[in-house]
Amino acid sequence: SIGFFLVANSTRIARWDAKLGFCQQSRSICSRTGSFFVNSLNDVVLGGGNIPCIDLAICRVYPKLFLERRGKVHGLSGQVILTEGEEHAHQIEIESARQKEAERLCEQLRDKCLKCIDAKAPDEWKRLFLKPDVAGSYEQLSSSERVKVDKWTEKRESLMNDLLQQELASKMEEDEALSRQSTPFVTVLVKSSTPECKKNALLTFWKPKENQESLLQEGKVVRFHNLAVKPSLHDGQIQLSANESTQMEPLPSIIGTKVGYRPRRFFKFVQAHIKSRKASNRYNAPTMDTAGIVLRHDQFSNFHRIYLVDESGLLLRVERDGPFREVRIPNEHSPPKHLGNAISIGLRDIKILPFDHVEGCAVAAFVQTSSIVSGRCRRLDELKKASTLRVLQRAAGLLHASLLGYEGSHIFTCIGHIHGFEVGDSDSINVAVDCGGENLLILEMPFILIQDCGLLLAKGQERVSRRYDLKSLKVLNTVLEARGMLLRFVVQRKENNIMEIKQLDRADPEVIANLFSLSHASISLPDPSRR
Predict the structure, then answer these.
(1) Alpha carbon distance 87, 180 (integer Å)
(2) Pair 432, 440: CB distance under 8 Å
(3) What are the DSSP calls for 159-205, one per residue?
(4) Which of 71, 401, 472, 529 is most deeply packed, by most CB within 10 A?
(5) Residue 46, helix vs strand vs coil
(6) Strand 371-373 vs strand 344-356: parallel, antiparallel, or unpaired?
(7) 467-504: buried (b, 16+ CB within 10 Å) or exposed (e) per residue?
(8) Pairing between strand 304-309 and 248-254?
(9) Angstrom distances, CA of residue 33 to CA of 36, 52, 197, 282, 288
């Protein structure tokens, strides 16, 4: 049977007196290449088919990514999203693997291909190469036989190469571990060009052409034709899709702040700290652009993080699943010796996460839509001019000494010696800590942290009893006092003025001494007992 398939986004209610059947197109429809015009994102129906025509404002253009699909490796298959740097690295990796496999297969297939080619050789060539004296046999051939042998000799090499390439391609296609498909795409944050609509959408552009990418500029309005609409929202946003066949028309109007567009601007770290302190979870995290000077780079197996500082001395920790391939950041923990060695970078569209009260720094996540600016930039130039070497070295010293907690926070850091233990309730003990103040600081230590004390003593091979009685605690206390071990305590203030130890590790006296020398003055650490 023949029928029409109607979708909501491409269907309109006709006039009450309209005749059934084909009708003449109006002037407005003709001006839009025969498509109905959707006024704003408010009129888009999720899962209601493609949008015939709509004007959208480009607010943010995120970096190009690649959707990689690989064949089965060790029985597993799947897809992964890569950045441009990761795409280049994966392409080199797969080409190297294919090259090695091709060399191995060539050695195996060469003899097989030679037998197949020689089986098709003329009889004169076969008789010639079956005789022991090839040169003498060739002289005994007639002129017509020599012509056949010469032509086959010239043709044999090309036939051999063609057959070898066919066999090699067939074998390579059978190996799923060497198969790879990579599809480029660009994600764009768009809004309606009308101020009345407050909705926004994420437009994913698959395999964009150069002329299409050139139209995707922030602050411009573009007319799109035949955009696909996904049936559900993602992070509260409409999901649109386009491809290389999508028609686009640039419009002369430049959108203003009424539709929600804000030109990009690198904010200072004080704004990052404000947003980080207001953030409650990792979901629906706000994004922002900022810039700073790299103080430290920590590398783990599949996790990297960098610490940055700006002219205010505030710190920002940026975390990422994978390396920072966009810019070369050395894995160093020492502060910069002069501003010329300092690495300043700009970060775009990073997600602000909840504040870390232990390290006293704002936290951000470098996600797939984030990008790094490391070239010539006005904010980066201002950052180096406004920053001082003393601010950078002091921030790096505090970071290395793990003394970044803020006064008045419910979580703070203190350094001192354990002066004695006292058995408290069934889950914890009380610890007297000498922090250099007038009074000892009484902290509550969970029993599980006593094992950490034992690990700190592992250098001297002392055995710490796992029995948490007063006698074993006195032995541990005696060893700690004999060692004169300087410890760092991360303390959380609880109800009824009870302070509980959350983390415990060894402090580095040399690092702390360097911090004092960098400041050219003694650092007045607050007396925790007076808090």
Answers:
(1) 11
(2) yes
(3) HHHHHHHHHHHHHHHH-GGG-EEEEEEEEEEEEESSTT---EEEEEE
(4) 401
(5) coil
(6) antiparallel
(7) eeeeeebeebbebbeeeebebbbbbbeeeeeebebeeb
(8) unpaired
(9) 9, 10, 25, 44, 39
Integer Rg of the chain from CA: 35
Distance, CA of 380 to CA of 32 (rounded, Å): 45
**Structure-token match 């990761």, residue found:** 86
**209: helix, strand or coil:** coil
Q: How far apart are CA 429 and CA 423, in angstroms?
A: 5
Question: Are residues 172 and 98 in contact, defined by beta-carbon separation less than 8 angstroms?
Answer: yes
Q: What is the biggest distance separating any 2 CA atoms in the chain, rounded to whole angstroms? A: 116
- Its pTM stands at 0.69
Distances in Å between the Cα of 2 and the Cα atoms of 5, 17 are: 10, 26
- What pLDDT sits at residue 350? 93
Task: Write the CA distances from 516 to 404, 464, 505, integer angstroms.
Answer: 14, 34, 21
Task: Give the pLDDT mean for 513-519.
Answer: 63
Q: How far apart are CA 326 and CA 82, in angstroms?
A: 13
Distance, in Å, from the CA atom of 364 to the CA atom of 381, rounded to the nearest integer, reads: 23
Q: What DSSP string runs through 3-23? A: -----GGG--PPPTTPPSS--
Query: Which tokens hold the place of 380?
Result: 């980066």
Lowest mean pLDDT across 78-82, 232-236, 265-269, 515-519: 515-519
